[in-house]
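Narrative summary of target 7.
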Amino acid sequence: MPTIRSLSALEILDSRGRPTVKTTVELDSGAFGAASVPSGASTGRSEALELRDADPKRYQGLGCLRAVANVNGELNDSLAGRSFDQAALDRTMIELDGTASKARFGANALLSVSLAFARAVAAERKAPLYRQFAGIAGLTPRTLPRPTINLFSGGKHAGGQVPIQDVLIVPAAARTIAEVLELAYAVYRAAADLAKRRYGVRELTADEGGLAPPFASVEAMLQDAVGAIEAAGLRPGTDVALALDVASSHFYHRDGYHLGERKLDGSGMIAFLADLVERYPVVSLEDGLAEDDWSHWPQLHERLAGRTLILGDDLLCTNPERIRRAVSARAADALLLKVNQVGTLTEAAEAASLARAAGWQVTVSARSGETEDDWLADLSVGWNGDQIKVGSITQSERLAKYNRLLEIDRETGLGLVTWPQKAGNG
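Modeled conformation, tokenized:
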């Protein structure tokens, strides 16, 4: 097994200008690997703890020097000179932390070590990172994930001009990653032109690169998405479908869901979402209900199963316990996998395995605060993700992942996942 020589961490900045953690792991063989961890804005309450300094004099309390010190100090002292495989390393770090939420060292510290170790081992074996990830999960890469790409943003990603978080495009007709990006570019340019013409706004973007005009309503946001697809000379629901990240937890209160002037109870929210799926070519519906509205999630799934993916993000938090509960309740049929929600590669692999065993699809996702590190692309291929959700086709932290997928596509010749089979209504 590989032997760790040293760990070394550094505080760097993510795509929002906020601190995050980058760690380098060096092995006794001389091989080394470095990895940077992302950070979310739309976060579930059950996510592992991202350790911040809480010092108001630095980065409004968002500094990561404590997490960095944990890597450079106690984690390095405990792990250097010892031999591990991935599962043993992650298990040892979890035991050293000793908390359910990774609160002692910070999930950002633990994940940076977990990822950097995987990259170092891949370098030692002279293997591509996606094959190293596949080995960790006991898988063989068979397909490339189909990207779902941010077009329009609202919610916490764009100042809340509309309550739902993102409308994404799904290049359903594309056969390669290159074709995905060509279609996405055509629709994005058409959407930018539409936004300038209709709303008089410049091409300003949200956290993940989506355009953010001042839409009057959720319906207007979806209508403009369909209009952009058509303006690009493409067929909505055939060439390009839509996916929604509703992020309902952020406009849910004790008395219901607050959609602008409308207030809906759980049943009313389900009816609202079902109407959107009926009227627009929506093939994936993420966090349609609040993360703890367990009584209504099974009803949502029963209403729309087979017509669109019922995708859990805040509901599940890549947390095996919550996934088991959702499987038992028939509350969803797809997992949004965010490795930093749980804290180590081994735990994330368990989450993905549970979803697969239930017959679910898996969407491998980036976060709103990303770096130019491209490991997510390799993870999505190594773990046979059905979809990958990176963001828009602007901003270097997003493009790094897409460009890495282009490289993997060329190297492997793997085909894209054949989803969606039916892209819904146009």
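The radius of gyration is 21 Å.
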